[in-house]
Design brief:
The chain has 285 residues and is an alpha/beta fold. It has helices at residues 3-15, 21-24, 34-39, 41-44, 50-58, 71-80, 114-125, 143-147, 160-173, 202-206, 218-221, 225-243, and strands at residues 61-65, 85-89, 130-134, 152-155, 177-183, 186-192, 257-262, 267-272. It has an 8-stranded mixed β-sheet, with helices on both faces. Strand 5 and strand 6 (186-192) form a beta hairpin. The protein binds zinc ion. Zinc ion is lined by residues 194, 200-201, 203-204, 276, 279, 281-282.
Length: 285
């Protein structure tokens, strides 16, 4: 019998039921009802997540800013991971040109609000999750209230003004930020905790020059659909790292480490973002 098939059958046998002793004897996983134990069995048997990690995800609240190319796959994997509460923020309606990369949306959704359609998908996917659609544009006036209750914010929006408003709000409210962006074949993902001493924020990375500008949009540059899938899924994984900090070994958020994808080559490299002591977002933190 091929090894892969043996592995599959073994894994299937060991993971198929909530009576699995590995799961049942884990104190944290005991707090999950049997149907949830089954649903998340592949997470719980990972030592890097475990029952403690799954329990943490079940109680977590993630605010997703931007339900576009990055927000779509990020939502799918965060909801798939059982993140218990999701707030979806986007002011846009679905356009036909979105469908090439925003895979939660169908042709029949064109003209509807992205946040609402994404929330409907989430409810169908897992009715146990609490999901809320916020059809609005994030501004300096509403950003702090939007992020206040979040355990993390995942920002995959399409303009610098919103990104900087979200970043400043996260620093002010003490909320970690998973930031993901891309254009053409380039992707960037980083976790920021600018409210913590010595840690940079997103504004330390990009500076103040872009506050008033919308730039680097997909409409101007173009973007490959599969690239947003890769970057959005990586952003979801980065968000999970942040949520699991001090809970399980996957919880290494790598604050301030920027991951750069080149989809053409392809390759990935990373660099450390320095904290800017004069940063108007986090300079005093
Ligand atoms: Zn900063």
């Amino acid at each position: 019998m091929p090894f892969a098939l043996i592995f599959y059958l073994t894994a299937r046998r060991s993971l198929s039921a909530s009576q699995n002793p590995l799961l049942a004897t884990n104190p944290a996983s005991m707090s999950l009802p049997p149907d949830r134990l089954d649903r998340f069995a592949r997470h719980i048997v990972l030592p890097e997540v475990g029952g403690m990690g799954q329990d943490r995800l079940t109680r977590a609240h993630v605010v997703l800013v931007g339900m576009g190319g990055i927000g779509n796959p990020a939502l799918q994997y965060l909801a798939g991971a059982g993140v218990g509460r999701l707030t979806l923020v986007d002011s846009d309606v679905i356009e036909a040109s979105n469908l090439q990369r925003q895979t939660l949306f169908a042709a029949s959704d064109v003209g509807r609000a992205k946040a609402e359609v994404a929330a409907e998908w989430t409810h169908r996917f897992d009715p146990a999750l609490e999901v809320e659609a916020q059809v609005l544009r994030v501004t300096r006036d509403n950003a702090r209230e939007l992020v206040r209750d979040a355990d993390i914010v995942l920002d995959g929006c399409d303009n610098f003004a919103t990104r900087l408003a979200v970043s400043d709000a996260c620093v002010a409210e003490g909320v970690p930020l998973t930031s993901a962006a891309l254009g053409r074949f380039q992707g960037q993902v980083a976790n920021f905790a600018g409210h913590r001493e010595g840690q940079p924020c997103y504004r330390c990375f990009v500076g103040d020059a872009f506050d008033a500008e919308d730039c680097d949009t997909c409409a101007e540059q173009g973007v490959l659909g599969a690239m947003v899938g890769m970057v959005g899924a990586f952003a979801a994984m980065h968000g999970l790292r942040a949520l699991l900090e001090n809970v399980s070994t996957l919880g290494d958020p790598q604050w301030g480490q920027l991951y750069l994808f080149n989809g053409m080559k392809p390759d990935m490299r990373s660099m450390r973002i320095a904290k800017d002591a004069g940063c108007s977002g986090c300079g005093s933190a």
